[in-house]
Design brief:
This protein has helices at 16-30, 75-78, 124-142, 175-179, 181-184, 191-203, and strands at 2-9, 36-43, 61-68, 83-95, 110-116, 147-157, 166-172, 212-222. With 223 residues, the protein is of the alpha+beta class. The chain has one domain: Alpha-Beta Plaits (2-Layer Sandwich), CATH 3.30.70.100.
């Protein structure tokens, strides 16, 4: 089974509501495809906070995750306005929620979608080692992660798509656990050293100047 993530960006004048409806219509048009075993997506439904310790991007985006047979692509998604690339990935779930809500209902809590590429000057093996064996356990120790979906990009299409090498979806049980720095990083006695440690660790393997974090919500359409 192959997992692919399709990235779709909103038009410059497209509202959150209109963008959400367009992605819903796109999903409705493909969900009956017999080759699709699972389908979920994360999407920006609201503007991020004006002030945050997380450098949220203000643009609107949807990341549509599709599990299916074969190595082909879902043509109708490729044809979507704002399509910016499809990424074949290897998924890992270092921590995972137990889904007890119906398909198509918004996943409880809130999600941080992050797109990134490796730091220049290090090879892929070092990038993956620091990500898997350094950053992942650090994140699990510091942040109140409820679900951590880690995707390593193996290949992408088209050739001129953004060359993302990692796509991560980090879920918290509540908005405050992500947006309140004292809940995301810890109490006043530990918050500053923890922020410095996470920042330094991130810069050791990620090209920080090109990272794209988004405040998103998740919908599991077919589980």
């Amino acid at each position: 089974m192959t997992k692919q993530i399709y990235l779709i960006r909103a038009g410059e004048k497209e509202t959150y509501s209109d963008f959400g409806k367009r992605i819903e219509n796109c999903i409705a048009g493909i969900i009956k495809n017999e080759d699709i075993f699972r389908l979920s997506y994360t999407i920006t439904l609201e503007s991020p906070p004006a002030i945050s310790v997380i450098p949220f991007k203000k643009e609107k985006i949807a990341a549509v995750s599709i599990w299916h047979n074969g190595s082909g692509f879902i043509a109708s998604v490729l044809d979507q306005q704002g399509f910016s690339g499809v990424y074949t990935v290897t998924e890992a779930l270092p921590v995972s929620y137990e889904k007890d809500w119906p398909d198509e209902m918004k996943t409880p809590g809130i999600c941080l979608l992050t797109l990134f590429r490796k730091k220049q000057g290090i090879d892929r093996s070092v990038f993956l080692d620091r990500w898997f064996n350094g950053h992942t356990p650090l994140s699990l120790k510091i942040h109140p992660l409820w679900h951590y979906n880690r995707n390593v990009v193996e290949r992408f299409m088209p050739e001129n798509a953004d060359p993302w090498e990692g796509i991560v979806e980090e879920h918290m049980r509540s908005r405050s656990e992500l947006l309140n720095p004292f809940k995301f990083f810890g109490n006043p006695l530990v918050i500053i050293p923890r922020m410095i440690k996470v920042y330094s660790d991130t810069r050791s393997f990620i090209d920080y100047d090109t990272i794209e974090p988004y405040l998103v919500s998740e919908f599991i359409v077919k589980s």
